[in-house]
Amino acid sequence: MAEDPRDWNLETKLVRGGLMRTEYGEISEALFLTQSFAYDSAAAADARFAGEAPGFIYQRFGNPTTQMFEDRLALLEGAELCRATSSGMSAVHVALTGLLRAGDHLVAGRALFGSCRWIISEWLPRFGVEVTYVDATDLEAWKNAVRPNTRCFLVESPANPLLEVTAIGAVAEIARAAGARLVVDNVFATPVFQKPLALGADIVVYSATKHIDGQGRVLGGAILGSEALMLEAYKDILRHTGPALSPFNAWVLLKGLETLDLRVRRQSDNAAVVADAVAAHAKVRKTVYCGRPDHPQAAIIANQMSGGGNVLAFDLGSREAAWRFLDALQIVDISNNLGDAKSMATHPCTTTHRSMPAEEREAIGLTEGWVRMSVGLESAVDLQRDVERALDAA
Predict the structure, then answer these.
(1) Cis peptide, bond prior to residue 161, ω within 30 of zero
(2) Right CATH number for 5-258 from 3.40.640.10, 3.40.50.2000, 3.30.830.10, 3.10.580.10?
(3) What is the pLDDT of residue 309?
């Protein structure tokens, strides 16, 4: 009897999920650098375009390498279907526009990545979508924001950049009662530490640029959910608007999945060491890390996350102090990316959340003294020394 890949443990899914070998029996997944595909006959082309025969049509519609990545990530996430996109932001954009129409209402957690806020605040209203922001940790706020035309909820959990954590299951129940779909951006937790679909979410999105690649090479994104919803909401928009993931990037991300579990767990271990060192330093006003018991939503984290992740944030009181800290780092890079093998730190107010109006940053508690740090795979001892030295300089 053939084994069902759904019964495999996580480590096996990451290495062997979605594998399709050609007649050559290659061990490493094949890279299909082709834009289009040939047909045996005109009738065969007709059948394939009609959806009556299996097979690929055009790289914008699908590619064998991309499908292997999609199938592997779906297996890992516990989703019926995954569709890859060219970047994390294209995944967020498609995830929302596929569910919303003119006259619809979207409710979103207030703490979001800067580009996500732009899409919601500036882009969607141009097409007649109404938007309400709420404190994502306040369940009553979600309930009170619902209108008759509410069609979608959006939340990042943990949220960028201050790691606010939302009770996904409870918010999913509110969305379901309102007839709305819940979209969860799970990039900070990764599919290793949190499974939003199992908690009740309808759609999960990823910036595969982050931990899934994890080595600073390519951009990519992914949208996952039930087959029925994915086909209904996203089949046509993905085919006709062209946010396709390149086969080469899909191959890089596919290989990245093989080591995702190893990397994320090691990064999380390192982040716990760094977070404790930061929290103990006299220059630091506040430290937020999902693996610490003093996290404001520690009880929720214990219920829905199996690890703390590799990102922490801390407040040094002023922009000047934050910049002195960043400039004093000798191992950790100053960079706005995260989830990389290399440790990185950034000043969100002047980088990732620069486009957010000051009053909106203040509403989520993001003041000028905050630093966000993504911990990598270096020695925890070396990282602690580098960070403590930079904190002294702050």
Answers:
(1) yes
(2) 3.40.640.10
(3) 98
